[in-house]
Amino acid sequence: MMRLTSLSLFSLSLVCVALAAVSANAAEDDKGWTALTDGKSFDGWKINESEKSWSIKDGAFVAKGGRSHLFYVGDEKPFENFILNLKVMTKNNSNGGVYFHTKYQKEGWPKNGFECQVNNSYNSDPRKTASVYAVKDVMEAPAGDDEFFDYTIEVKDKTAKLYINGKLVNEYTEPEGTEAGKDFTRVFDKGTFALQAHDPGSTVYYKDIRVKRLP
Fold first, then answer.
1. Closest CA to 63 of 165, 206, 161
2. What is the Cα–Cα distance from 181 to 123, expressed in whole angstroms?
3. What is the torsional sign of CA 74, 75, 76, 82?
4. 47 and 3 together in one domain
5. Which of helix, strand or coil describes residue 69?
6. What's 42's domain CATH number?
7. Signal peptide location in the record (predicted)?
């Protein structure tokens, strides 16, 4: 009986050590992340063109209305290398986007930075979710409508990796000698983030937005 009890205590101690290690790793994974939303307000964000295109519902920014972009302005230090993570949900036939390396402008489609496309079933544009818009496109949607999917954008030096639900879907590395110009010739630089309200017929939800700066 004593032998059984000692063995049980030893096994229990091993389980406790394993759980402690898992907890330590989880805490390590959470280090360096900064939440960009509080789920209740637009604090740290700035809307251009049409405030009516944006609302907050169940902790998410909801884009529905005429063209408008919601820029993150809560940190004056520009983002260069980083991991941006958020949850996104589209309704049927909806278009949106997530910009990086951009900067606030009063109107128009953002001229600076890259757009990471949000489009799972929008009929009028073949570029689907996880496209680096008009730079390296994805033609088959990696997610569906009416449910939140995990969108991760990792930018390191001259490479962007786009993950949907933890799976690498698209990767773009800027060719040497690329220079900014007209049309969609864009270059890696530094800046902030922006979310897109595309048109009155599109409804897109963005929530749980967080970022981790990289060296």
1. 206
2. 29
3. negative
4. no
5. strand
6. 2.60.120.560
7. 1-26
Same domain, 40 and 20: no
Name the residue range of residue 189's domain: 34-213
pLDDT digits (tens, 9 = 90+) for 123-152: 999 999 999 999 999 999 999 999 999 999
Report whether pLDDT(15) > 50.
no
The rounded mean pLDDT for the chain is 89
- Rounded to whole angstroms, the Cα distance separating 196 from 181 reads 22
Same domain, 21 and 61: no
Examine the domain organization and report whether 78 and 14 are in the same domain.
Answer: no
State both tokens at 8.
């049980």
Cα 148 to chain centroid distance, Å, stands at: 12
What distance in Å separates the CA atoms of residue 71 and residue 42, rounded to the nearest whole number? 10
Instruction: Tell me, yes or no, whether 93 and 181 share the same domain.
Output: yes
Among the ranges given (8-17, 81-90, 152-161), the one the predictor scored with the smallest mean pLDDT:
8-17
Are 63 and 3 in a shared domain? no
One-letter amino acid of 178? T
Contact 93, 185 (CB under 8 A): no
* 3-state SS class at 193: strand
